Amino acid sequence: MKKKRQTPQDDLQSNKKQPNAYEDLENTQSNVSELIKKMKFRELEEFEIQQFIASHDEQKFLMITGQPGCGKTMLLTKCLKQWQNNYTTIYINAMQCKNYTEFLNICKKQLNVKSSTAKQQTRKVIMDRLKELNTIITIDEFDNLFKVSEKEAFDLFSLSKHAIIIGISNDIEFLQTQSVRYKFQLPQFKNLILKPYTIQQLQELVLDILKQIEIQKYDEKAIKILTTRAYNDKGGDMRNIIDIVKRTLRDKEEITTDAVNQEIGMSVFDNKMKSVVTTLTLHQQLILLGITALLKKDSIQLEIDLPDLIRKVNEIKYKLSLPLSVDVEEEINLLKDYNLLTTKEAKQQKMGFKITVKKILCKFTAEELKYQLSDLDAFKNILQQL
């Protein structure tokens, strides 16, 4: 029997609480590592989401869109925790999915459905299971599902007859373009747009963060400079703000105007390097990803052995189902031209013999490389694990 439908009062009973989601903000110099629990300025959007869930529409499909760093995923994370007692909740980041079949397999696993081989059979057992449950399926990076599967992915809208589908994306343009291309009539859906944070909201959020991690010393002028310049650079992207705060606190536990000016200057340089990284070949980007994985997070030691790097790059390629037959050393030599790294040879003692080992000297820390690689969608899952 399908679970009894919850009333709007049941679904909205916890709506008065503040949203609670921020990613971990770490001070890489000290042991400060706190989960930012207050998420302000999204109360209205949360209310609209809860109203949508509590509505009695037969077929439900909600899109949550907005520019990067405006809190889309964080807000849904908070809502999913609220729904867990009343619904079966499924969360899938579409970056995990190489095709629509893989998406179905992840759904099947989260629904605890017994394994089946044929795709049609998999789809049928999922549909049968959804008929028995009150289910909410949240798909982050929603548009990626249509990039890897195109026409086939439109089948997921048939799931919305038996489950609530929520997609998270920066915009809906790609979905609409694909639907026109394949002459698919999209079901009626609600598009909830999260507006960017204003400069004033960003300033208040930064002060909340500093209070949460018990940073008592800060210059109000520095906060204004931080939020204003970061806003001009990235709009209301809170992740960019958090990154600059984290880097400013790397050497000492206070926010000063000089420190902020220095970090923002570094951020401008990093942004330029980020644009360079996006133009590299896939194999060169994989080398930078391998270096990022090998560099210790808090260390200023930026030197690694070439054999270790080759093993790490091949390990990443294997995970991504990419061919291993690429000359890593040749690609590294090409990377020197971009001022990302240099190489040297060093003598090492191994099993009583002196051997010559080629070493890679990176010009950036692991955190800085992660930032420069952060726009590459194909690496998002791996970067999150580093």
UniProtKB/TrEMBL annotation:
Residues 1-27 are annotated as: Disordered. GO terms for molecular function: ATP hydrolysis activity; DNA replication origin binding. Coiled coil: none annotated. GO terms for cellular component: nucleus. The keyword Glycoprotein does not apply. Residues 9-18 have a biased composition (Polar residues). Keywords: DNA replication. InterPro entries: AAA+_ATPase (IPR003593), AAA_22 (IPR049945), ORC1/CDC6 (IPR050311). One of its GO terms (biological process) is mitotic DNA replication checkpoint signaling. Residues 58-190 form the AAA+ ATPase domain. It comes from the Eukaryota. This is AAA+ ATPase domain-containing protein. It comes from Paramecium octaurelia.
